[in-house]
Design goal:
This protein is mainly alpha-helical and 609 residues long. Helix content is 76%, strand content 0%. The chain has 27 helices and no strands.
């Protein structure tokens, strides 16, 4: 009888072990393929640059092929971002629930993911059947580009099923699958009469997804599908088509390249040379090590363009030293999280790339104004650190020759700024080409540092995984943005501004209020993509410089990297340092106040010019 009673448990363990092996093998294959696609993308873009400048020629279809490969990269990498911070889940509410209710929320969360996978899979398949013609430059059938994302939906479905079987949650998985299937089949049959705009029902459905901790991109897709029942002008194939179209911009290829730059810079050791140089400048001052953390963030910002990358690097590099010099762990982590905000403000900036893609603002102009905004924010943070950190001189003053040696050692990292900002600003290369050249440059640094093939592959895999998560978010925000435009939400904002007087001051007050509220519950990238096109026309009409307004928008939203409940930068630092996120949120308040002061100064400047 004991053997009979233990048999189901053994079978369950065997099933979980088998699912774990299959999942690990599949993710390894997907990660390797995504890394290879990223390497191929880098080679294509660099080939285009070389052909133009060395041979005064070009290749027909190169940009379109790169765009198609970018879609393939996202399709391969999206299943890999189901777990961890890259899933972009808002799990703060679920943590407060009792165990039984939390399990129900987990089932609903999986239901969102499974439904979004079905939408991509079958919506992509429907487009493949409907769409004819071939690409005029590639000579390939147009349906391939949409089929790639459909295949990505199938991969998400497979990986999620294997994950849940590995965790022994087969029963819950069956319930989630049943729920997703019922909703998927029922929505096209429903026709709910409502005077309210479909975008509102999309937003409400996405909000429910956020509350139950579904990945943000999956919440957007599910919301767009549910909106069909309330009169949405986007049927299922159009949802997938709009998602793919939102990804099909050559500018967006700069994102995986900049992520690759940050990874290679850290792996090659060049980032640590920046730390050494920063310490030689300010390490001897009051709160010297904390000020070194800030200055390193300023310098590292000119290379990575990713606040998350800087937060992870800073948490691993500075947290132990700050604690060793007497800072409480929460205070040390708060300083690292706060200074990491600068990476998406000081060029190169992935946030500015997203804004430019959504609004057609000049990337070069945004980057130049980003220097000014980053300087204001860094100065405010320096003052806050000065008054909140007690240690006065953790290191001796560095001599002139030592400072010169540190500067010389850091020169390779400084070269990135010249490649990216100067190249874009004077028009030598496009933003994507500048990012590719920066990636080639840091790859050279990594090879010079004798990084092995395994380490390089790991860096490419991680960059591809991060790029896929960001890319899927950009794509799935497309249907939401489309419905917001159809429902004339920008016009409603304009009317609200008119009621407040229509002045530049009214626009800035209303815009910042909206951004501060939305940023509390919406991912920074999604908020940029959705709110940028809505708020910018009102600002331009009021006479505010559109570039400076764009910078203010990004600064406002980046501050929410420190605010609950999302607080991505706080959670990254918490994950690396093991300091509870709640303690970090409390400790970060003085630096949050300093950043809000810098936001006020930028708004004042916008009113004066």
């Amino acid at each position: 009888m004991r053997l009979d009673a233990s048999l189901p448990k053994r079978r369950a363990r065997t099933l979980a072990a088998t699912a774990a092996r299959l999942r690990a093998g599949l993710e390894t294959v997907l990660g390797t393929l995504a890394a290879l696609v990223l390497a191929l993308l880098l080679g294509l873009v660099l080939t285009g640059v070389a052909a133009r400048y060395l041979f005064s020629t070009g290749f027909i279809g190169l940009e379109e092929l790169a765009i198609w490969l970018h879609v393939a990269l996202i399709s391969l990498g999206a299943p890999l971002s189901l777990g961890g911070a890259l899933a972009m889940r808002l799990d703060v509410f679920v943590r407060l629930l009792p165990p039984r209710t939390a399990r129900i929320a987990a089932l609903l969360s999986d239901g969102f993911s499974l439904l979004s996978a079905l939408i991509l899979l079958f919506g992509g398949g429907e487009i493949m059947q409907m769409l004819g013609g071939v690409s005029p430059t590639l000579g390939l059938p147009e349906w391939i580009r949409f089929g790639l994302l459909g295949a990505g939906g199938g991969l998400i479905l497979i990986v999620l099923v294997l994950r849940r079987l590995e965790e022994g949650r087969g029963a819950g998985l069956a319930l989630s699958l049943a729920l997703a299937g019922v909703v998927y089949l029922a929505i096209p049959l429903l026709a709910v009469e409502s005077a309210l705009p479909p975008s509102l029902f999309l937003a409400l459905t996405a909000a429910l997804g956020l509350v139950v901790a579904a990945p943000l991109s999956h919440a957007f897709l599910t919301g767009a599908y549910v909106a069909i029942a309330f009169g949405s002008s986007l049927p299922e194939p159009a949802i997938v088509s709009t998602t793919v179209s939102s990804l099909s911009k050559f500018l967006l290829l700069a994102i995986p390249f900049f992520l690759l730059v940050g990874g290679l810079l850290t792996a090659s050791g060049a980032a640590r040379q920046l730390v050494r140089f920063a310490a030689s400048l300010v390490g001897h001052r009051r709160a010297g090590l904390a000020q070194t953390t800030l200055l390193t963030s300023v310098l590292f910002s000119g290379a990575s363009g990713s606040s998350v990358a800087n937060a992870a690097f800073g948490a691993a590099t500075f947290q132990p030293e700050l604690v060793r010099h007497g800072l409480p762990p929460a205070r040390a982590g708060a300083i690292i999280a706060a200074t990491s905000v600068l990476d998406n403000i000081i060029p190169p900036s992935i946030a500015f790339l997203l804004l430019a893609a959504a609004t057609n603002l000049s990337v070069g102009a945004l980057l130049v104004d980003g220097f000014f905004a980053g300087g204001v924010m860094a100065a405010c943070l320096a003052v806050a650190i000065h008054f909140t950190v007690a240690d006065r001189a953790p290191t001796a003053r560095t001599s002139g020759p030592e400072r010169l040696r540190a500067a010389f050692a850091a020169l390779p990292a400084f070269g990135l700024g010249a490649i990216v900002v100067i190249g874009i600003r004077i028009g030598i290369v496009t933003t994507t080409e500048a990012a590719a050249l920066a990636a080639l440059y840091t790859l050279g640094l990594a090879l010079f540092a004798r990084l092995g093939p395994g380490r390089l592959l790991a860096v490419f895999r991680e960059a591809a995984r991060e790029a896929a998560a960001i890319g899927l978010l950009i794509g799935t925000a497309g249907p939401f943005a489309f419905l917001l435009a159809v429902d004339d939400v920008a016009g409603l904002v304009g009317e609200a501004v008119t009621l407040l007087g229509g002045s530049a001051l009214a626009v800035l007050l209303l815009s910042n209020l909206i951004l501060l509220m939305v940023g509390l519950v919406l991912d920074i990238g999604a908020a940029i993509l959705l709110l940028g096109p809505i708020l910018l026309p009102a600002a331009t009409t009021a006479g505010i410089d559109p570039i400076l307004f764009g910078v203010i928008l990004v600064v406002n939203l980046m501050i929410h990297g420190l605010t609950p409940p999302l607080g991505m930068l706080v959670y990254v630092v918490s994950g690396v340092t093991r300091v509870p996120a709640a303690a970090l949120f409390r400790a970060v308040l003085p630096y949050l106040l300093a950043l809000l002061v810098s936001l006020g100064l930028l708004c004042t400047w916008a009113l004066l010019i």
